[in-house]
Amino acid sequence: MIKQSENLREEGNTLFRKGSFEAALNKYLAAAQLSQDNSVICSNLAATYLKLQKWDDAIRYCDRGISIIYPERNTQKALYVKLLWRKAHALKSKGLIHDARITIEKALDIDPTNRTLLLDKQKFESEDVFFEENAAEIISIPIQEVDEIPNSFFTLTTDSKLDSIPPSDSNTTKVFPNIPADETNYPIHPSVQFLSTLGAKPNSMSLSYYKYVMLVDPNEYRNIYSRSGVDLAFLDFFLDACIYFIENNQLEYESNITELLSLFRSLPRFSLTSTFADSKKVKLLSQLFTFKLQKSFNSFWV
To answer: Which SMART domains does the annotation name (predicted)?
Structure first.
């Protein structure tokens, strides 16, 4: 299994060097599923998500790699610094200049003479100072009293496919066209690799796949993930689907959502995998469960 994972990673490296980032991503995700505690693969995934401008995904895999390597950071300095550097640039791309600056400083603690890090630190410091000096003019948030929580309270704040998906028409109960009997695109018995790549599908297909992941037989998930536990990339996509349905009051999927979350929580390694899930999505789902489902999200997650 380790050899197979390394072969997939090497194939991903070849595709990455050719600029085929989507194809490389699929290889790295498959490799990560076979070797979930491999910090090098996490670094590869972070680099690929940076190229694809998926900043939150890049940060998540940087954090995962950092947590794996942290106990041995002094003996694996190069990889540890690389993960911190990639995280810093993802944070900067999200506009989180101060956080990016702090992350670069952590990398410099390990490699204080690294010229690239020193140049980035200087650049981030100047941008951070500029932002702080102009924050009062840049940010102006009106405060008002409301009688109930507005729908905008539940707006997703992460870089997600949800941002580009229009809300469903509240006057219709048919959210999706019928899913075609297409075993290639909508397999009845999906593989781990197929599920892990759903997040990389075009935005135009996201709605159909949101419904698809809710309608897959739970026993299929149990069989697929019974040994390794649910895959992080798939879990992230599943959270997007949950958010979409609840935000848009498609509550006919409520039982599917809660049943599948309970199933995933019962599988091996979920307590570890869930810690790397997008924290903003988890927080948003907790709010949605409370205010729209009148349920505790933690009872299905923790």
So the answer is: TPR
- The pTM for the full model equals 0.48
CA distance 244 to 241: 5
> Domains (ranges, CATH) in the chain?
37-138 (1.25.40.10), 151-301 (no CATH)
- Cα distance between residue 132 and residue 47, in whole Å: 29
Amino acid 57 reads: D
User: What is each CA distance from 195 to 17, 43, 213, 266, in whole angstroms?
Assistant: 25, 21, 9, 19
Contact 90, 117 (CB under 8 A): no
Phi-psi domain of 198 (left: phi exceeds 0; alpha: psi -120 through 50; beta: other):
alpha
Please, is 102 exposed, middle or buried when counting C-beta atoms within 10 Å of its C-beta (0-12, 13-18, 19+)?
middle
Contact 83, 43 (CB under 8 A): yes
Angle among Cα 283, 285, 289 to the nearest 5 degrees reads: 120
Question: Is 71's pLDDT higher than 90?
Answer: no
CB 273: neighbour CB atoms within 10 A? 21
Q: Is the pLDDT higher at 161 or at 260?
A: 260
